[in-house]
Design a protein that fits this description.
This protein has 383 residues and is α+β, with helices and mostly antiparallel strands. The chain has 2 domains: 194 residues, Rossmann fold (3-Layer(aba) Sandwich); 81 residues. Helices cover 35% and strands 22% of the residues. The protein has 10 helices and 11 strands. Strands 1, 2, 3, 4, 5, 6, 7, 8, 9, 10 and 11 form an 11-stranded mixed β-sheet that branches. A hairpin with a 5-residue loop joins strand 3 and strand 4. The longest helix is centred in the last third of the chain and has 66 residues. 16% of the residues are buried. One of its GO terms (biological process) is rRNA processing. This is Brix domain-containing protein. InterPro entries: Brix, PPAN-like. One of its GO terms (molecular function) is rRNA binding. Pfam families: Brix (PF04427).
């Protein structure tokens, strides 16, 4: 026999085993929604998926029948390390961020939010480049260095949601977006912002910058090209950023026109959205369950915590006992069915033996001799 042919799925996934280490080790995420239906939560989920690109399931299809176990069952082969769940109740909207497969889980309440389309439409000069979404954003945390276990866990969770950056080998052309998280220690609010990053040259006039960047200048108000370059008042848009504190030295060659290696440039941010204002509600030790490590609204005494822990251990013990009992019952059913088969076979053998004895007795009474197998078969009696 020849070698069996591979199916279409195997042919499509022939490069699956050769995935680069950078892709395998990068944190991937699922962004889903639960709770009451509504267009707001659905659009907010899509906007957040846009933020987490490219290491997220952008076109993930959800159904009402899907449970968290369904997503966990496929998380391992897809290298998914985090799951973000937007939920809506009668009290408000919430965001849960959990580390797979064993937690912890952080629950945030969403106080205010703005969609990405509303943020972009409010800008005077919109700058949305699709190339920027081919690489993961840079994460920037502000004021998360205070005291408290919850601050450290929040900072660790947010940092691990995005790939780490090696400052010595990073390609600056891939740093096109950034996510800013600012924590206000007074109000305990977290401001979530999403920006695109541009590097622009400084120290040149607006007209020169247009020509350098390959744009067609408008010469309708000038007598000649020299007047366009020397016209007074045509300062660069980055004139406010000409302060040395706002300038950086670019150590690499960038694709941006007018930006020279080892030259002075300015960093510009253009907001992409969405905007979120969050507050931490609680931190759970497990995946969407387990011991509550922190709660912002409810504070329990040591005795209450011990009682909750005792109940949790008792519940775990009863669950394990129930599983063990079900396993023993299933094994007992298998043994009982095998015994029934054996008893059925033994019963058939006994019935056959009784019938054979009756035939022998009948032969003795009719013939008056000891039964012989050949003679009994001749008389039509099966032995």
């Amino acid at each position: 026999m020849g070698k069996p042919k591979r199916g279409r799925c195997a042919k499509r996934n022939k490069n699956k085993a050769t995935e680069p280490d950078e892709l395998v080790q990068a944190p991937h995420s699922f962004v889903i929604h639960r709770g009451l239906p509504g267009a707001h939560i659905l659009e907010l989920t899509k906007d957040f998926r846009r933020v987490m690109e490219p290491y997220t399931a952008t076109s993930l299809k959800e159904r009402k029948k899907n449970t968290i176990k369904d997503f966990l069952s496929v998380a391992g082969p897809l290298h998914v390390s985090h799951i973000c769940i937007f939920s809506k109740t009668s009290l408000g909207m919430y965001l849960k961020i959990a580390r797979l497969p064993r937690g912890p889980t952080l629950t945030f309440k969403i106080h205010n939010f703005s969609f990405a389309r509303d943020v972009v439409s409010s800008l005077k000069k919109q700058s949305v480049v699709e190339e920027a979404f081919k690489h993961a954003p840079l994460i920037v945390l502000n004021s998360f260095s205070g005291e408290g276990l919850h601050l450290k866990m929040m900072a660790s969770m947010f940092q691990n949601m995005f790939p780490t950056i090696n400052l010595l080998t990073v390609d600056l052309n891939t740093v096109r977006r950034c996510v800013l998280l600012n924590y206000n220690s007074t109000t305990k609010m977290i401001d979530f912002r999403h920006y695109s990053i541009r590097v622009v040259p400084v120290g040149i006039s607006k007209g020169v910058k247009k020509v350098v960047q390959g744009k067609v200048p408008d010469l309708s108000r000038c007598n000649d090209i020299a007047e366009f370059f020397t016209k007074a008042g045509m300062l660069s848009e980055s004139e406010a950023e000409d302060d040395p504190q706002h300038q950086v030295t670019v150590p690499q060659k960038l694709k941006t026109r007018g930006t020279l290696e080892q030259g002075k440039s300015a960093i510009r941010l253009s907001e992409l959205g969405p905007r979120l204002t969050l507050s931490l509600i609680k931190i759970e030790d497990g995946l969407l369950d387990g011991e509550v490590l922190y709660h912002d609204l409810i504070h329990k005494s040591e005795e209450e915590r011990e009682e909750i822990q005792r109940k949790r251990e008792m519940k775990k013990y009863l669950k394990e006992k129930s599983i063990k009992g079900q396993k023993e019952k299933s094994e007992l059913r298998v043994v009982t069915s095998e015994q029934k088969e054996e008893m059925k076979i033994d019963k058939n053998q006994e019935e056959n033996a009784e019938v054979e004895d009756d035939d022998r007795e009948y032969y003795r009474e009719e013939v008056g001799e000891e039964p012989d197998k050949g003679k009994m078969i001749t008389l039509g009696i099966e032995l």
